[in-house]
Amino acid sequence: WWRRLQLGQMSASERIRYFYLTTLEQAHEQGVGRKPGETPLRYAPRLDDTIHEESEKPFSQLTDEFVEIQYAGRTFDDESASYAQRLWQRIQSALDTLRAQKENDG
């Protein structure tokens, strides 16, 4: 509930940044984090491939929004943040599945 409270107090752009950065943390925990020197745009397709989300590429879409915020100073509205949250949930679910597969294999 605390995370929901915190998200509710963030701007749309801050929420998108949060979704991106927490995805990076979880991907790193699963052994598929960004490599040193790897740009967000080079990393995104690699993670999409790893989580078997090649068709809609949710992480690439989330990355595009993050890059616009982080490097171009763009702001997003609540509708965009809601869409980013749905992408984030799909990515989190895929990473959870990846973790479960590794636990079963190990």
Key traits:
106 residues, mainly alpha, 5 helices, 75% helix, 0% strand
Care to describe what's here?
With 106 residues, the chain is mainly α. It is built from five helices and no strands. It has helices at residues 2-8, 12-29, 40-50, 58-72, 78-105.
Overall pLDDT confidence: 90
Largest sheet: none
Instruction: Please state the overall shape, judged from the principal axes of the Cα atoms.
Output: globular
Tell me the helix content: over 70%
For the record, give the distance between the C-alpha atoms at the N and C termini, rounded to a whole number.
Answer: 32 Å
Which helices and strands appear, and what pairs or packs with what?
Elements: H1 2-8, H2 12-29, H3 40-50, H4 58-72, H5 78-105
Give the gist of this structure.
By secondary structure, the chain is mainly α.
